[in-house]
Here is the input.
Amino acid sequence: DVKVTQSSRYLVKRTGEKVFLECVQDMDHENMFWYRQDPGLGLRLIYFSYDVKMKEKGDIPEGYSVSREKKERFSLILESASTNQTSMYLCASSKGTRTSYNELFFGPGTRLTVL
Amino acid sequence: DQQVKQNSPSLSVQEGRISILNCDYTNSMFDYFLWYKKYPAEGPTFLISISSIKDKNEDGRFTVFLNKSAKHLSLHIVPSQPGDSAVYFCAASHNYGGSQGNLIFGKGTKLSVKP
Here is the structure.
């Protein structure tokens, strides 16, 4: 059974804190992604990675960074959390064939609240 | 600019009847379309997909129709069940450029199936 796991289901942080969201997949997928989901805005891509040590900006990278030191692990970092980063964060992975037929497998999500 | 649009934020249907969820897109280069289903506090899960070379794909109670000339696709659920109540995301991808394989999501439609 394929699995994408995220380190926390719920997280509460204070403004200005550095926040780490961890994601691990066990499917040997090359591609990994971080999205955020907000009501009325759908799923928006923050960052993605096609390989270890590689990262590319998505649609809304401001205020975020990522790290991909190992193939199975993709971390999202909020350098200085702000209240507008309160959201549901979703990690996903897919095969690395670089075609348009890449089904995404999502983790359960982390509900982050920044006070 | 939104490339994938789901213009109905919500839809309410009686159990046993047909649910029709609509999606429009603007990028004629999209060649693969997917529907994801999301329950609260869970990550989205893949439901059904269709390639641009087809106009219909069916999987049990779920059928996706693609009208390329109108840049429109729809998801039909027949018969609808209370367990189908969820947010449905339409997604599209293309096989060119640096972001090939990345999915672009609509904002979602919340389906409520009433017993």
User: Anything to note?
Assistant: Chain B has a mean pLDDT of 91.
